Amino acid sequence: MVCDDGMVLMDSNLIIDHAEALAAAPSLHAQALAAEREAEAAELQRSEGSPYLGKMYDVMSFLKRGNVDEGLALALRWREDSPGDVLALIALGEALEAAGDEAGAARAYGSIIDLFPARADLRRYVGGRFEQLGQLDLAIDTFARAVEQRPDHPASHRLYAFALAKAGRHADAFAAVSAGLEQHYPDERFLGAARIMREDAALLLSAWLAADPTHATEIRRAGDKIGVTPDGAPSLRFVLTWETDANDVDFHIIDNTDERAYFSHKRLESGGELFADVTTGYGPECFAIPGEASAFPYNFVAQYYSRGPMGYGMGKLQIVQHDGDGGLKFDDRPFIIMKDSAFVELGKLDHPL
Which residues contact 77 (CB under 8 A, 6 or more apart)? Predict the structure, then answer.
């Protein structure tokens, strides 16, 4: 409506409608939030007992039941609908592994790096997937990039070092862990990491010495430079890393007597000690058994207190066995979690590697 003086007035009915809409907005918002919470509760109930939600739960459920074709078909549709979704690519990799297509699985996991080349956390996770597939060259390359991007994370150095050791590049492996030891980390940021990497260095020095005994003098001299001597005793180590910052993940180790080691009970009567409880993100946390382990099977569980801003959490359990003479064996177990405060089963170790 326009007045004689040119002023524009709103119609009274429009004013009333606008006021009613404003009054209804909080109610509609509350209804939307309530519906969202109801859907989340329903999904948690549907996926009870699993660390997964949504389409990831569906894909992994198919694979668990042996319905690989159905799981792969669902993962392919998910990837096509959401080509930039990290979870869709992980699900596709899992399904391709189950189908026996390891090369295809490596391409699926590698696509995550293509999408997010500057994300050291994703590089480390994908590196663990490459290791599991036996793609050591790819793992080494992406771990090296992770070191460049986040040298302030102990996990970058030690994952890179052990991948090099698996490839028989013992001098490079020792140099990589030495760089990790020499790196400055913020005070109280990674409790126990210095001890873990120092013991890692002693293992890698022993492996280097065993692989190249003709250069024993030079190898021992390299150890002397960082105050490390070759480890001459057998051991079994379980090391947990995760890819979320400023959060607490608890590592639980259960032996064949059902005794459980965790943050408030760090030692097992059967042998072994949890070094430290990292509550500031990323890890590593290490449980080490000196000498010959005697309480098989060992079961592993992680309690993930926060998935992080992406809505999921990623990590890896690495098992390192030393025979006391420089022989190292490994078992790498990448994992993903989609529920806050959930316990993630990381499998068990029935016997020595």
Answer: none
Decide: helix, strand or coil at residue 10: coil
Average pLDDT, the chain: 91
Average pLDDT of the residues in 72-94: 97
Query: What is the DSSP secondary structure assignment for residue 190, as one 8-state letter?
Result: S
Q: Using CA atoms, how far apart are residues 54 and 261, in angstroms rounded to an integer?
A: 32
Would you report the helix, strand and coil content of the chain in percent, each value rounded to 5?
A: 50, 20, 35
Beta-bridged to residue 57, according to DSSP, are: none
Nearby residues of 323 by Cβ (< 8 Å), 6 or more positions away:
234, 329
Say which residues have a Cβ less than 8 Å from residue 338's Cβ, sequence separation at least 6: 51, 52, 53, 54, 56, 57, 87, 307, 311, 312, 313
Interhelix angle 136-149/102-115, nearest 10 degrees: 20
- pLDDT tens, residue by residue, 28-63: 677 777 777 887 788 788 988 888 999 999 999 999
Cα–Cα distance, 52 to 342 (Å, whole number):
10
DSSP 297: P
Burial of residue 148 (number of CB atoms within 10 Å: 0-12, 13-18, 19+): exposed
Whether 173 shows a pLDDT value over 50: the answer reads yes
Could you read off the pLDDT of 97-133 as tens digits, one per residue? 999 999 999 999 999 999 999 999 999 999 999 999 9
Top-confidence residue, 240 or 25: 240
Average pLDDT in the 232-246 region?
Answer: 94
Please give the model's pTM, rounded to 2 decimal places. 0.88
> Distances from the Cα of 21 to the Cαs of 14, 26, 27, 120, in angstroms?
10, 9, 10, 47
Among 131, 57, 98, 68, smallest CA distance to 330 is for 131
pLDDT score at 7: 44
Task: Specify the residue for token string 């913020």.
Answer: 186
- CA distance to 192, 199, 261, 275, 280, per residue, from 270 (Å): 22, 21, 11, 16, 29
The 3-state DSSP class for residue 289 equals strand
